[in-house]
Amino acid sequence: MTVLAIDIGGTKFAAAMVEPTGVITARLELPVGPDATATLAELVGRIAVPGLTGDSGLTGVGIGSAGPLDVLGGTVSPVNIPSWREFPLVKTVSELLPELPVRLAGDAQCMALGEWWQGSYGKRASDAGPYKTLLGIVVSTGIGGGVVVDGQPFLGPTGNAGHIGHISVDRDGDACPCGATGCVETIASGPSMVRWALDNGWRRAVEPAFWAGRAVDARALAADAKRGIPVAKLAFQRASDALGTAILTAAALFDIDNVVIGGGVAAAGPTLMVPLRQAIARQAGLGFLHRLRVDATSLGRDAGLYGAAALVLGDRPS
């Protein structure tokens, strides 16, 4: 009953062997590199032990991928992997692991599903009433979203339901790689936050010696925001305002009561979560929106892998 879970992100691919009990027996992560298809083949080849297929052990493959995607056609077009446009991800994995069922969903969809199955949300879901909704948001190289209703992923006709990163929150904002303008992703993704901060004097705000050997990325931006550097704090505030607007839009449309945030930028913890909760409280109007609960994933980088495994295990996770 072991399943292979694969998490396709904009800058890294991860895979894990997952038991029905939720135990991860092996895990591997690789940077995408210049050839995403070659990276995928290396990832699967290194973690899926030869011969561990079919009746002998490995019973299926679940994939969570950055989108957009087409679950019916088994293709993906991640905004941050330009070489993959309508890439036949399911077919490619099926050729690497013949005769195994392969299921595909969005990365944030899987993150939310993983949180429901193995995270702290699932442990309290039984007390949330007869109708329970969970919106998952991945804040990383891009911004993805997905919805789980009563323990089941709501995919929509193409698999893109909940794709919150491409809600436009600034009609006069920057062009997005997706083709629209002012998407949440252009403000709140890690690269977008860093780009805005640099344009507004981020590095000039810090003593030069402090930058020796440091990467100029969202992790460094979060560290400076935590240190109180004004421009870094403002970058997180802008991101929180944009995310808050999109979250409240989704909650108003679909009466969502819980949101879980994952991804690399979410690892900033209170640096992101405090201004995000404040933005939601400030913007919420209708009474039912005030019950909205927003938390960081309790599963860290493994949330999407758990959810990808659950796609295959279905009702069988224990």
How would you characterize the overall build of this protein?
The chain has 10 helices and 12 strands. With 318 residues, the chain is an alpha/beta fold. Strands 3-2-1-4-7 form a 5-stranded mixed sheet, sandwiched between helices. It has a 5-stranded mixed sheet with strand order 10-9-8-11-12, with helices on one face. Strands 5-6 form a two-stranded antiparallel sheet. A hairpin with a 3-residue loop joins β1 and β2. α7 packs across α8 and α8 packs across α9. About 2% of the residues have low confidence.
Secondary-structure blueprint of this entry?
Elements: E1 2-8, E2 12-18, E3 24-31, H1 36-47, E4 58-65, E5 69-70, E6 75-76, H2 89-96, E7 102-106, H3 107-118, H4 120-124, E8 133-139, E9 143-149, E10 152-154, H5 185-188, H6 190-199, H7 218-227, H8 230-254, E11 258-262, H9 270-283, E12 293-296, H10 303-313
Parallel strand pairs: 1-4, 4-7, 8-11, 11-12
Antiparallel strand pairs: 1-2, 2-3, 5-6, 8-9, 9-10
Helix pairs in contact: 3-10, 6-8, 7-8, 8-9
